[in-house]
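Why should sequence recovery work at all? Because a backbone constrains its sequence more than one might expect. Tight turns favour small or flexible residues, buried strands favour hydrophobic ones, and helices have their own preferences. The token representation captures these environments compactly. In the example below, the structure is given first.
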């Protein structure tokens, strides 16, 4: 997940590289054709450079009739072949690249569907999304770029070297010996240039910050008379930005001067050496121009080759990030027993829970028995562990100690899928999917449900009341995430979904928190009906809704501190009684 600096050829990197290549294996014939195209691309350029000599020496100087006929044809042919090479390589590499992106996206997405809930809390969701939309693109573009550079530029360099040496070894070697000097000057100058630009970018940031602060804090600035202070601060920052900008301009100007001077010196030296009496006879104008041109064409290719490692590194770190996720172990599912329909006898035995990366236990030894068909209400301050306790049931989280026993059997013995089939769930924040109302109520394994049963469930959840008013009834689209619905409407759909699922265990985690008192009362009847013959765990912030529960468990700091019926707990005069008194007063006043 961190972009660690990778040494280019250490064992880890090689492993990632091999695995990455594995993704391209299925398309290797196309990759091969693309590589061929790249080679043609690079080679054609060298071939054209080679043709410059006859063009200068024979075509125009000697007016050779053979060349006068053939030269235009050669030019067209070379560029036609090069064009085909470019097309084939671009098409082929994109084809392979896009397929690799798709395969990687599919693997990461599949991982997201099977990873445990704890994974999703471990990093921001934006990062998890950008892994699919951005990181996988990075892998593909970095690795295809790298391949393209290695092949195209590699062939160009080799071809140009051949052209140079075959025309005049003397001139070529002289030039090649001067090359490192020119390269050195260019590198030093451009490095300095980059350093300064980077610093400038930082300073531009602080100009933005300074303006942003003063603008957004304009009330504070005025009320506290901070104008002078802000003006001084801004002047300092903008002064610095101007100085740095000037420095960049100076460096840019002097760098091109420096490089031009060095190049001119090198050229002068070359001309001097080429015109020595014992040399000049062997060098034609064409040879001189070809060697110079080939050298010029080779330089950018060399530069790109020298930097190809940056592309590879970028691709490798991106790929590592993806592979890390793909390799994260899936939810534990070692159970063998398939649970048909549970009786709904739930026993929490000494259950402890600690969230990953958390210092303290969210649950500190919870013992609780929920008899088949009974209603257990969990109450307590926010943060006392109510949601944590119920999210153990579908095994979103694994207890750190203790166990949960369902129908007399440790619930890990059951297969995860059959366990989750037993549970209807309405959470505090309801997430809906892009689709119609019907599709959202009959989601997942409920997808085959008949229209009548969907309407019946919606009716029971008191949702038909608003669904009927929508233009297309239960087939109305609800927009991405259900953003066209209010919180209360969303909760009623979630309740309808739970009703339709008709599971023997029902978990209601503040299922009516987004509803007004009026709608809550209406739904309460629906829920009461729903709870019949089911084992229900209900978390409610309005105590009036749980007075009739078979047992009420009061939680505090990860423990159950009181347990009993409403009447018993009131008589006991403890935390519950106090909470109840408080809410009762609020209602009186409100
Ligand atoms: P309740 O539902 O009673 O309000 P929770 O079960 O949500 O309480 O939270 C219990 C404790 O666990 C709190 O201290 C909370 O900070 C912590 N907690 C809840 N969810 C997470 C999480 N995903 N990661 C770390 N700690 C969590
Ligand atoms: Mg909660």
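From this structural description, the recovered sequence reads:
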């Amino acid at each position: 997940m961190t972009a660690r600096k990778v040494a280019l050829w250490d064992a880890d990197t090689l492993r990632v590289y091999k695995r990455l290549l594995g993704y391209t294996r299925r398309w290797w014939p196309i990759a091969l054709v693309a590589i061929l195209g790249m080679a043609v691309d690079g080679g054609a350029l060298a071939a054209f450079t080679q043709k410059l000599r006859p063009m200068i020496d024979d075509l125009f100087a000697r007016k050779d009739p053979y060349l006068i006929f053939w030269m235009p044809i050669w030019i067209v042919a070379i560029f036609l072949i090069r064009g085909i090479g470019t097309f084939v390589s671009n098409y082929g590499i994109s084809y392979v690249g896009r397929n690799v992106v798709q395969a990687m996206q599919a693997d990461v997405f599949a991982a997201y569907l099977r990873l445990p809930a704890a994974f999703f809390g471990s990093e921001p969701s934006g990062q998890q999304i950008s892994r699919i939309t951005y990181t996988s693109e990075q892998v593909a573009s970095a690795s295809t770029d790298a391949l393209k550079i290695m092949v195209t530029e590699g062939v160009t360099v080799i071809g140009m070297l051949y052209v140079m040496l075959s025309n005049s070894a003397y001139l070529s070697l002289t030039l090649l010996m001067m090359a490192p000097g020119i390269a050195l000057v260019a590198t030093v100058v451009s490095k300095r240039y980059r350093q300064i630009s980077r610093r400038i970018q930082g300073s531009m940031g602080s100009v933005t910050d300074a303006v942003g602060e003063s603008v957004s804090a304009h009330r504070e600035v005025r009320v506290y008379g901070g104008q002078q202070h802000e003006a001084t601060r801004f002047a300092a920052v903008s002064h610095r930005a101007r100085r740095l900008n000037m420095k960049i301009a100076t460096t840019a100007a002097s760098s091109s001067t420096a490089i031009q001077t060095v190049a001119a010196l090198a050229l002068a030296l070359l001309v001097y050496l080429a015109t020595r009496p014992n040399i000049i006879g062997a060098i034609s104008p064409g040879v001189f121009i070809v060697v110079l041109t080939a050298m010029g064409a080779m330089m950018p290719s060399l530069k790109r080759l020298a930097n190809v490692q940056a592309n590879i590194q970028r691709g490798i770190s991106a790929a590592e990030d993806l592979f890390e996720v793909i390799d994260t172990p899936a939810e534990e599912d070692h159970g063998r027993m398939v649970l048909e329909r549970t009786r709904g006898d739930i026993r929490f035995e000494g259950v402890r829970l600690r969230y990953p990366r958390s210092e303290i236990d969210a649950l500190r030894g919870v013992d609780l028995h929920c008899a088949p068909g009974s209603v257990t209400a969990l109450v307590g301050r926010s943060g006392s562990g109510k949601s944590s306790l119920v999210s153990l049931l579908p095994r979103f989280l694994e207890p750190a100690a203790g166990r949960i026993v369902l129908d007399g059997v440790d619930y890990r013995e059951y297969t995860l899928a059959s366990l989750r089939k037993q549970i209807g769930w309405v959470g505090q924040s309801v997430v809906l999917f892009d689709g119609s109302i019907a599709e959202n109520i009959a989601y997942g394994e409920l997808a085959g449900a008949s229209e009548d049963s969907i309407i019946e469930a919606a009716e029971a959840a008191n949702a038909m009341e608003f669904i009927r008013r929508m233009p297309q009834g239960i087939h109305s689209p609800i927009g991405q995430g259900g953003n066209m619905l209010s919180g209360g409407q969303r909760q009623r759909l979630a309740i309808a979904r739970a009703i339709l699922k008709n599971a023997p265990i029902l978990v209601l985690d503040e299922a009516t928190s987004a509803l007004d008192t009026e709608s809550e009362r209406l739904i309460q009847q629906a829920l009461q009906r729903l709870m019949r013959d089911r084992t229900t765990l209900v978390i409610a912030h309005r105590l009036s809704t749980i007075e009739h529960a078979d047992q009420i468990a009061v939680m505090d700091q990860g423990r159950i501190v009181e347990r009993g019926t409403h009447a018993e707990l009131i008589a006991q005069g403890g935390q519950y009684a106090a909470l109840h008194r408080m809410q009762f007063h609020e209602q009186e006043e409100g």
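A few observations help interpret the result. The beta strands are 346-353, 363-370, 375-380, 401-406, 409-410, 423-426, 505-509, 535-539, 551-556, 559-564.
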